[in-house]
Give the backbone structure.
Amino acid sequence: MGFTYLDVIILVAYIAGITYFGIRIAGKQLSTKDYFLGGKKIPWWAVCFAIVATETSTLTFISIPGVAYLTNLNFLQLTLGYFIGRVIVAYVILPSYFRGEISTAYSFLSNRFGTPMKNFASGVFMLTRLAADGVRLFATAIPLAIILRGTMLVDTVSTEWIYIGSILVIALVSLSYTYVGGLRAVVWMDVVQLFIYIGGAIAAIILLGNYIPGGIGAAVVKASEAGKYELFNFSFEGGLSGFFSTPYTLIASIVGGAFLSMASHGVDQLIVQRLLAAGTLDKSRRALVFTGGIIIFQFGLFLFLGSLLYIFYGGADIPSDEIFPMFIIQEMPSGLSGLIIAALFAAAMSTLSSSISALASATMYDYLMPYWKGINADNEVAVSRFITMIWCLLLVGSAIVFMQSPQTVVELALSIASFTYGGLLGTFFLGVLFTKPQLRHAVPAFIAGIGVMIYVILFTSIAWTWYTIIGAAVTVGVGLLQTYLFDRR
């Protein structure tokens, strides 16, 4: 049906509205505590919704329906692991962040092992987040370019410039309210954007129910007959090798999902920053555990959408990442297309603004404030805003760099976090669960964990669901082995 002027108006109105309300809701920022932690007074339920929005990128919005289109509900097994991992973080790792004055996830490592460990871990986080979210920002332009092809823009603007334009618009809008309002603006805009993209998915489901003969009920029956609602995968085919190379077996999903969630929600500043903003351990714990239930619902919703798309298209051979965008541009009525594209922007901006704020906070708290005596109460917010702007520009540059890469490199970059998550999580385990490991043990263990993961990811067929647990196990094992071998009394 194409992208009409009504869709353009809806999209522009959404972008303008988000910018305006994000700036208005920010309030005064008098210190870095206000700017990066919302004064530690953000309601726990807002933190909860913001975390869900932050971890839901455009890739999730587009790709998860495609997963169900190609396969079934096996992917949903991961969310069970995600929930378990969050509960473990809430009761094992999170209490460490509320002992003393902790400003970033890596401040704990400074207290436990010393400043060099904090600087090393924070630097690894920055490089990983810069690359991973640069890819996500670029990937946002892919479905938008698909949607915009065949519109009024295609005759005058190349696809490459549509990509760059999408990247710049998302980055500038996200920067506007992040720059002015800091984390408070980011969190409240994340709450709004969560409901926008969930609403977009529900709208698509309702529309599919109207298009499919017999409605949603008939579609569910057909999808069930096609095996689309098979949830658990108990298979052990291919022996031990096949077991570890299959990503969505029940054991791999629950164990791997739990460890991935422990890393992403326990040691990544992107999420920890929001948990600290809740102000108390009890509120942070409540926010984190509730996200586990919301994630199960959200992924179930996206997968259900994918099963309906399978029935609508009759299982046609279509690239999975193009299924939902193709439905949007070809089948959605005027006005609703604009809403769905606004939902794409919402998912992208919630991740990007959160990343900008997390990177800037880690830079300020872990590197600048401890060493640069020129920062004081009078200028710390101005410096924080400048650092925020710099990180936004770096993320745009990262996204544009990935535009020049072949698709295989992009797919590799999407798993960048897997290279370092295991090492980070293992280092935190060394600090939280054991008393003997010191700095001289933790740094080599962290490096060993990353080194082993580089080999596993590049040179083995082990499924990605096992990456974090392998990296964490190697890090903890090497750290404890050093303690035993070299520090025996």
About this structure: The CA atoms of residues 420 and 433 lie 20 Å apart. Confidence is low (pLDDT under 50) at residues 406-411. DSSP finds 20 helices and no strands in the chain. The domain at 5-406 is CATH 1.20.1730.10 (Sodium/glucose cotransporter).
